[in-house]
Amino acid sequence: MFKKILVANRGEIALRVMRACHELGIQTVAVHSEADVDSLHVRFADEAVCIGPNPPNQSYLNLNRIISAAEITSAEAIHPGYGFLSENAEFAEAVVSCGIGWIGPSPSAIERMGNKSLAKDMMRQAGVPVIPGSDGAVSDEKEALRVAAEVGYPVIIKAASGGGGRGMRVARDEQDLANAVLIARAEAESAFGDPSVYIEKYLPAPRHVEVQLLGDSHGTIVHLGERECSVQRRHQKLIEESPCVALTGQLREKLLSAAVKGAQAINYTSAGTMEFLVQGEEFYFMEMNTRIQVEHPVTEMVTGRDLIKEMISVAAGQSLSFGQKDVRFVGHAIECRINAEDPERDFMPCPGTIGFVHLPGGMGVRVDSHVYQGYTISPFYDSMIAKVICHGLSRDEALRRMLRALDECVVDGVKSTIDFQRAILSEPRFQSGDLSTRFLQGYRWDESGLTLQSLVEAG
Ligand code: MV4
User: Is the CB of 437 under 6 A from ligand 1?
Assistant: First the structure.
C-alpha cells in the first residue's frame, strides 16, 4: 500500500480523499494556489506545496508543477479528485511514466471514453444499448441527412470531444440540420480543437440515470447501483438520489448488468460512472465518466462502501475488498449541492467571505464541505459551499430529513441556493418522483419562490 499520497485538487473533494487516506494510515500532501493558502485541505494534509497563482491554468491545471510537487515530497501516488486534471489522459500518462501511482483508470481508458463518439461505438459493440444514430462521427451534410432520416427527427448533434452537455445542438427538421451541423462543427473546433460531431435521435424528456462502477486490476468489476440525476440546471446537477424510483422490476437489473458488461469490455479499473438516458422502459448508454464524481456520497450512503478507499487500494494493486454479492442496498439517499449563487440573478456565482455558518447534522445526515466561518469563496474556482446528503429507510424519510437538514443550514455573508433547493424538495412533482432532464424548465423562481409555469411559457 502507498505510504504517501498527493491530492491534486482543492475544496471538499480534497478533504474527502485525505480523510480516506488518513483512515488507511497514509500520509497526505496538499497542493494549493496562492489564494488557497488558508484552505482546509492545506491544514488537513501532512505536507503542503504551493504550486502557483490563482488562475487554475497556473496551479491546479499545471501538470508539471503537480508532478514536481509529488517528486519533491516523495509522494508515491496522486489522486486527482474530480474536475481539473481528473480526466486528462496526458496527465495520467505523465504521472505513470514518472513512476508515480495514478489513482484512477488507465490513461487509455480515460482517452477512449473521452471521445464520446468512440465510447458509444465501443459500448454498442459490447452489446450495451445506445441511442440510435450515426456509427461514429459524421463527415458531411449528406451523411447527416441520411442518418437523421433513418432515426427520425428531432435529432441532436453532439461534439465527439464534448460531453457533459457542451457542444450540443438540436435539429427539428431537414431545414435545420445542415445549419446545425455547420454550427456544431465550428463550436466543437473552437471549444475542443476537434470538429468531429455525431448524431443521434433526440429524446424529448428522458431521465438521467448513472451507474457507479468499481473495477480492480484482477478483472473484477462490480456496480454499486444507480443514481438519478435528472434535476439539473444548465448541465449542473442540483439534486441526486439513489435508488432511481423509475427503475422497477427487471429494468434496474438490466441497466446495472449492461453497465457492468460495458465496463468489462474495456477492462475498466478504478471508480467510474456510466451515464444513461432512461425513457419509459428503454435505457441508452450516453457517456462514461472516468473519475470519482461529486455525487458519489449518495452511493456510499446506500451501500456503506467507501469508494475512495477502494480507488486507492485497487490503484495499489489490491483486489476490491468485496464482491457483487456482498453489496447490500439499504434505504434511500438524497444529495443537495449548496452553491454560493444567486437564484434571483440567474444563478450568478457570489464569491465572498462567509460570516456565521452552521451546517446540519444528526441522524442520517452527512455534510461534505470545506467552508468555515471567515472562509472566502474565491471567484477563481467553483462556487460549491457544501454537499448535504441525507439517508433514510425510505425515500420519504430521506426527503423529510433533507428538508429538516436544509432548515438547519445557516450560511451568512453570501447568497446561496438553500431556499431554492428547499422549494424543489417541497414540490409535489419532485415528491412523487416525476422527474426528467426538463424538470426545472417547468418552473420559474423569483422573490415569491418557485412557481409552476405553463408549458407554453416553458417553451
Ligand atoms: C441527449 C438528450 C436527449 N436526447 N441526447 C446533456 C448532457 C450530455 N451528456 C447529453 N445531454 C443530453 N443528451 C439525446 N439523444 C438530452 C440531453 C440533456 C440532458 C442529459 C442529462 C442531464 C441533463 C440534460 C439536460 C438537457 C439535455
Answer: yes
What the block records as the C-alpha cell of 83 is 474536475
Q: Tell how far the Cα of 66 is from the centroid of ligand 1, in angstroms.
A: 34
From the list 261, 286, 260, 290, the residue with the least C-alpha distance to 275 is: 286
What's the CA gap between 132 and 201, in Å, rounded? 6
**Residue 156 near ligand 1, beta carbon < 6 Å:** yes
C-alpha cell read off for 255: 441497466
Rounded CA-CA distance 106/86 in Å is 12
Alpha-carbon torsion, ordered 164, 167, 172, 178, to 10 deg: -150
Per-residue cell: 99: 513512476
- Cα of 91 from ligand 1 centre, angstroms: 28
Cell 441532436 found at: 156
**Any atom of ligand 1 within 6 Å of the Cβ of 5:** no
Cell numbers of 435, please?
A: 422527474
In whole angstroms, give the CA distance from residue 154 to residue 180: 12
Count of beta carbons in the 10 Å neighbourhood of residue 332: 23
Q: Which residues contact 97 (CB under 8 A, 6 or more apart)?
A: none
List C-alpha distances in Å: 365 to 359, 392, 401.
10, 9, 8
Distance CA 52, CA 32 (A): 7
Rounded CA separation 70/78 (Å): 8
What is the per-residue pLDDT across 258-296, written as a single tens digit (0 to 9) for each?
A: 999 999 999 999 999 999 999 999 999 999 999 999 999
Best mutation site among 120, 435, 437, 438 for ligand 1, i.e. most ligand atoms within 8 A of its Cβ?
A: 437
Question: With 50 as the cut, is the pLDDT of residue 454 above it?
Answer: yes
Q: Which amino acid is it at 420?
A: F
Catalytic member of 112, 291, 337, 366: 291
Q: Residue 230: which region, alpha, beta or left (left: phi > 0; alpha: psi -120 to 50)?
A: alpha
291 is catalytic: yes
- Max distance between CA atoms of the chain, in angstroms, equals 62
Higher-confidence residue of 369 and 441: namely 369
Instruction: Encode pLDDT of 356-387 as tens digits.
Output: 999 999 999 999 999 999 999 999 999 999 99
pLDDT value for 162: 83
Range with the poorest average pLDDT among 68-72, 184-188, 234-238? 184-188
Phi, psi of 47 (to 5 degrees): -140, 155
pTM over 0.90? The answer is yes
C-alpha neighbours within 13 Å on the C-beta side of residue 318: 13
Residue 459's pLDDT band (cuts 50, 70, 90): very low
